[in-house]
Amino acid sequence: MTRDDLDTPALCLDLDAFDDNVRDVATLCALQNIDWRPHAKCHKSPIIGQRLIDAGAIGLTCAKLGEAEIFGAAGIQDLLIANMLVGPKKVARLVELRKIADPIVAVDHLDQAQPLSEALHRAGLRARCILEVDIGLNRVGVQPGAATLALAQAVDKLPGLELVGIMGYEGHLMAVADQEEKSRRVQESLELLVAQQHLIGSHGLQCDLVSCGGTGTIHLCSTQPGITEIQAGGAIFMDAFYRQLCLVPGFQFALTVLTTVVSRPTPERAIIDAGRKTLNIEIGKPFVKDRPDLKVQWLSAEHGTLLVEGAPDSLKIGDRLELIPGYGDLTIMLHEQFHCFRGRELVETIPVAARGKLQ
């Protein structure tokens, strides 16, 4: 099959661009002598996850326990679960995952850590544990300073858990428009994170791992002294949000959505067969690849409305277009598989195996 044979809408992956992006992130990390533990919430695929590890990643970061279970069952061992696991069902599932993989669990309160410790200890198991520290996002995270030290000291005493480090997320700074301000604020946030490592270490506790870093700040967080690994995953695909709002340089648009023009109600309006059930529009607006004369105006459930700024006859019913997703993570989760191309030839399909794994 070629791209022309594919029905629409369809999620497509340019493997040549993908390979280049993966190489570029791996090289960036190698040059800075830090590890790469890319977030798997963007691709949700053990096949892609293994390719990232083969390219130099030390493991994967997962947004949910359900994702980690999929990757663990596929044989990927080193998994950071960047979320809080709360409730007896998740605690029991974590114990089972520990039997086949080597997950790292994140906590920001002793009430999360104690049930995990008790269950793992009863099972004769031990899991690595990191503290998530609030470095300005104001979401989860223990407060820096005395609270972080107190939690570290308490977790260090728990059987079943091995305190290994800390993590923080500078996501609130990804879309800061002024690049000098962005650089300064990212540096301040990550200096605060590294200071917590020094604080914990100065009291004789293990804190070797300092994890952070989204794609929107990848070139800044990867150069920050004291950071040991970054979690940026979306750079392997690239999208409109990272390029246009976060102003991330480099990386190619590897991910597209193939769509068909199904209606031309007026000379200045075209309708495509890709809507909100195909693409996410809230975080970043998709745009039409190589067609600056076409603008995505609106998405409804199953239709997209394009504004045609060029000649009316430049776009006809049946024409096929490629859209660069506004935000890859929330687009990929809507699809069952990647259609993977080299040039125009379809060479494989990759299931989005962890799709729907929200628990």
TrEMBL record:
Enzyme Commission number(s): 4.1.2.42
Keyword Lyase (UniProt): yes
Annotated ranges, domain D-serine dehydratase-like: 254-342
UniProt-listed GO biological process terms: D-serine catabolic process
One term of GO molecular function: D-serine ammonia-lyase activity
Xref: InterPro entries: Ala_racemase_N, D-amino_acid_metab_enzyme, D-ser_dehydrat-like_dom, D-ser_dehydrat-like_sf, PLP-binding_barrel
Keyword Lyase: yes
Pfam family, one: Ala_racemase_N
Keywords on record: Lyase
Gene3D superfamilies per UniProt: Alanine racemase (3.20.20.10), D-serine dehydratase-like domain (2.40.37.20)
PANTHER family linked to this entry: D-SERINE DEHYDRATASE (PTHR28004:SF2), ZGC:162816-RELATED (PTHR28004)
Family: Belongs to the DSD1 family.
Protein name: D-threonine aldolase
